[in-house]
Amino acid sequence: MSHRLRNIRPRRAIRPRGAVIVAVLTLTVLATSGCGQSKSESMKLGDCGYFTRGQANRPFELEHRSCTDPEAALVVVREASTVRCPDYAFSRSNRGGANKASYVCTQLNAQIGDCFNNLRYRDFDVFDLRKVPCSTPGAYQVNTRVERLDYTVCNTANSKYGETAEIRHTQPPVSFCSHRIGT
């Protein structure tokens, strides 16, 4: 019997190179399936940036920028969560596994004197919202900022300027009034 056992070959072990290939393939599948963490989900409270259109399985991305960067139109006020944002116009969601959405909540990153390209139609064009030089045609300049939810934030500006846009955020509460330059 000992002679017979000598003729049986041991099974081949997985070589390190094969293990590396399997690991790389696994990570690739996870990253493209939406199971990995997106740039937006890695954004932390107080980070700034702007939305861009993402790839097919990630309908948006929040591009990180320094809060003083001229393009940093938004600030993160709540990190990725499955709970909807109170200010939907300034937030977007990504579909995760098992049809769970992940919401990143943002607000306008603005001080008095900052200019933006499209505050009036922000609900439809949040992907295009950017801080711009105030000399940009059609720019809106922030003329009022109050640290509360204020439904009258533009009352004074409405009589002074031709076109105004009010932005009110509920959590945390802050309100802005801006006017279109040249009106």
Explain the overall architecture.
With 183 residues, the protein is α+β, with helices and mostly antiparallel strands. The protein is built from four helices and nine strands, in the order H-H-E-E-E-E-E-E-H-E-H-E-E. A hairpin with a 5-residue loop joins strand 4 and strand 5. The chain is globular, with a radius of gyration of 25 Å. The termini are far apart. About 11% of the residues have low confidence.
In short:
With about 180 residues, the chain is of the alpha+beta class. The protein is about 20% helix and about 30% strand.
List keywords for this structure.
19% helix; 5-stranded antiparallel beta sheet
What's the topology here?
Blueprint: H1 2-7, H2 16-33, E1 48-53, E2 60-65, E3 74-81, E4 91-95, E5 101-108, E6 115-116, H3 122-125, E7 140-146, H4 155-160, E8 164-169, E9 174-180
Antiparallel strand pairs: 1-2, 1-3, 3-5, 4-5, 6-7, 7-9, 8-9
Number of helices: 4
Shape, please?
globular
**CA-to-CA gap between the ends?**
100 Å
Order of helices and strands: HHEEEEEEHEHEE
* Integer-rounded radius of gyration: 25 Å
**Total DSSP E strands:** 9
Can you list the strand order of the major beta sheet? 2-1-3-5-4
What helical percentage do the residues reach?
10-25%
Low-confidence stretches: 18-37
Beta-strand fraction estimate: 25-35%
The helix/strand class is alpha+beta
Q: Please, what is the oligomeric state? A: single chain
Tell me, rounded to a whole number, the average pLDDT.
75
Largest beta sheet, briefly? 5 strands, antiparallel
